[in-house]
């Protein structure tokens, strides 16, 4: 009888590989409140996220309508968190008729979203859906700037579907198998 000696091997694999990190930003025209969402569409946790939304270059010459007085049309809605932990960064208010705001998000895990509501109106003399509603194409040209942690910022403009997909800095994950 022949005895077989088992061979035991231990393999430790360590890899430092960059994971894909990206953020999807969407505008949704909705009654009575329009809203914006930020979704971590990457593979790693993102921390200390600052986003600035600038509507000054939009096709619809868009503004935030936050009070009953001012430049907006009929319905108005101030900034309000819809989902997750998203906060305004400047003086905790957006003035009626402004076209720029900045928000901060502590942490977003892969696949996680945050969103906020605020009324957006166009200021065109003649618009596709009337001044009180904003079509996706009227959002085109709106700029989003994104900074994650202490990494260099990235920016892009909304397309005609009112969407942006921004690459954010790659994250490095060490895994032991």
Keywords:
5-stranded antiparallel β-sheet; 177 residues; disordered N terminus; globular
Please tell me about this protein's structure.
The chain has 177 residues and is mainly β. It is 2% helix and 42% strand. It has 1 helix and 14 strands. A hairpin with a 6-residue loop joins β2 and β3. It is globular and about 45 Å long. Mean pLDDT is 81; it is low at 1-15.
Structure described in brief:
The protein has one helix at residues 136-139, and strands at 14-19, 22-28, 35-40, 46-54, 63-64, 80-83, 86-88, 100-108, 113-117, 120-121, 143-148, 154-157, 163-167, 171-176.
Q: What is the number of E strands?
A: 14
Biggest sheet descriptor? 5 strands, antiparallel
Average predicted confidence as pLDDT: 81
Strand order of the largest sheet: 6-9-3-2-13
**Approximate helicity band:** under 10%
Distance between the termini: 37 Å
* SSE string: EEEEEEEEEEHEEEE
Structural Rg: 22 Å
């Amino acid at each position: 009888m022949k005895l077989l000696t088992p061979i035991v091997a231990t393999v430790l694999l360590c890899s430092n590989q960059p994971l894909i990190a990206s953020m999807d930003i969407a505008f949704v025209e909705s009654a009575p409140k329009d809203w914006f969402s930020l979704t971590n569409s990457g593979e790693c946790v993102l921390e200390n996220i600052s986003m600035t939304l600038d509507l000054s270059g939009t096709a619809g010459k868009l503004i935030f309508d936050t009070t009953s007085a001012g430049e907006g049309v009929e319905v108005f809605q101030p900034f309000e968190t819809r989902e997750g932990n998203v906060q305004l960064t400047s003086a905790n208010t957006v003035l009626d008729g402004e076209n720029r705001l900045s928000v901060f998000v502590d942490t977003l895990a892969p696949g996680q979203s945050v969103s906020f509501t605020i009324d957006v109106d166009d200021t065109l003399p003649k618009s596709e859906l009337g001044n009180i509603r904003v079509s996706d194409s009227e959002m085109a040209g709106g700029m989003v700037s994104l900074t994650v942690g202490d990494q260099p910022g990235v920016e892009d403009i909304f397309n005609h579907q009112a969407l942006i997909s921004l690459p954010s800095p790659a994250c490095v994950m060490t895994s032991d198998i």
